[in-house]
Structures are given as C-alpha cells and as structure tokens.
Design brief:
three-stranded antiparallel beta sheet; 10 helices; about 40% helix; alpha+beta; 9 strands
C-alpha cells in the first residue's frame, strides 16, 4: 500500500529536480494530498521524476482527488474498426452483449457495411459542401464504438514502471467475462467460444477507480478485429495464460 507520506516525498523530490515553481508546487501537492487510499496506489512513485509530476498535473487539471481524470488526460483510446461480424456475433448488439457494453466492452455506436452508409445531412447556414461520394469498397464492414477514457495497460506500464495488481486482476477478469459470453444466443452458432485473437497490453484499457461511481478498478477490452467465435476452451485458457504472462513482464 502506498501512503500519502511516500507520495508526498516522491513528488517533492521530483518537483525539486525539475524546478517546478513554488505556486504550482503547492497546488499539485494539495491535489495529491486529497487522493483516496485506493487512488494513491496509482501514483507512479517508482517511475521517473517527469512521470510523477505529469501525473500530479493531470490529476490537478481533472479536479482535486480525481485520479480517473489523470488517466483520461494521459490517454484515450477507441476500439479499432475491425470485423463487424465478430463484434455482432459476440453479442455487442444483443441483450446479453448490451450488459457488457460500458463494462468490459466499449459501447457500440454503429456497425454494418460501408456501402450501406447514407449521405451526410446537408450543412446548415449556407455553408459550401463537397459532393458526397460513396466509399470505393462498399463491402468493407465496420464497427464504431464510444471512446474509452483511461490508459492502455501498455501506457500504464510505461508510467508506473510495472502493472498494478488491481489493474492486472481487472484485465484478466474482463477477458474471462468475454470468454464466458453465450455466443450462441448472439447468433454465433453452437459449440464455439469467443477468442479475442490479439492479446497485448495495448488492447486493454484501464479505467481508474474514480472513473465510474461505486465501481472498483476495471478494464475494457478493445480492438476486436481479430476476434473469433469458433474457439475452444483450451484456446481460451491459452489466451488467459498469455495475458497473465504479459501482465507479469509488463510488456507486449
């Protein structure tokens, strides 16, 4: 457990080393003093002086005692537009999948074929607009999801110097929740199991505890472009082991 005294000492040393002026130093020190015990765990006291001061500045900009805001300012990510069939098959659009959106998956905004996209509405106010042209390859499928406010675990490892145990547990939990999805109910056929297909730290977004009221540390899984619906239990277990190995070494 990281104490306020440890955070204060690490920040003071970092601020002095970087020549932070007295006015800002006082504001940032006050911000760090208001972090909860849970949020203190995310202050990168073992990282570089720059990382420590950067964390304090982002927390201050987001609001006193808001480590979630620090994470949001440090990095935002979106699930890449991949195979929409895989995302829909997993059940992002089903009743079961809707319960996972905003939990261990980003919220699904749209999915389909580029060729089915309608022309954009005309601009208001008499602004000149370019002639709309349909996409050249209309059969390409896409998914669009909401932004995920937080840090990828790769960014977290770079900031903290290691993966926090709570972040690691949240990532494994998120993957196991998706592995347990009933893809048959989502049109995924019988007997198959969900596989993410691209297990790397950059594909897990970590939300700091304050990002969701009354919700503890959690991860959102992104980039479903290589996901499959025909996996086996053994392949799922292999994905979990692969994730655990990457979390342990803090790379990948």
């Amino acid at each position: 457990m990281v104490s306020k005294q440890e955070v204060a000492a690490a920040f003071k040393a970092a601020a002095e080393a970087l020549g932070v002026d007295d006015d800002e130093l006082g504001d940032l020190a006050y911000t760090l003093s208001k972090l909860s015990e849970e949020e203190l765990e995310f202050v990168p006291i073992r990282a570089s002086n720059k990382a420590i001061v950067a964390f304090a500045r982002k927390a201050s900009a987001a609001g006193v005692g808001s480590a979630a805001g620090a994470g949001a300012a440090a990095g935002q990510g979106t699930a890449q537009a991949g195979d929409a069939v895989a995302a829909a098959g997993l059940g992002m659009g089903s009743a079961a999948g809707a319960g996972r959106q905003g939990d261990v998956l980003p919220r699904l905004l749209a999915a389909g074929r580029l060729g089915d996209l309608a022309p954009p509405p005309p601009l208001s106010g008499g602004e000149e607009e370019e002639e709309w042209e349909p996409p050249p390859d209309g059969d390409v499928r896409f998914i669009a999801t909401s932004r995920v406010r937080g840090l990828t675990l790769r960014q977290a490892a770079e900031q903290w110097g290691y993966i926090q145990p709570t972040a690691a547990a949240a990532a494994v939990h998120a993957l196991k929740v998706l592995h347990a999805a009933d893809i048959r109910a989502a049109g995924g056929g019988s007997g198959g199991r969900f596989l993410h297909g691209d297990i790397r730290l950059s594909n897990f977004m970590f939300l700091l505890p304050a990002a969701e009221a009354a919700v503890g540390p959690r991860c959102v899984v992104i980039d479903l472009g290589l996901s499959r619906l025909d996996g086996t239990e053994a392949e799922q277990q292999a994905e979990v082991r692969q994730l655990e190995q990457r979390l342990q070494c803090g790379s990948g």
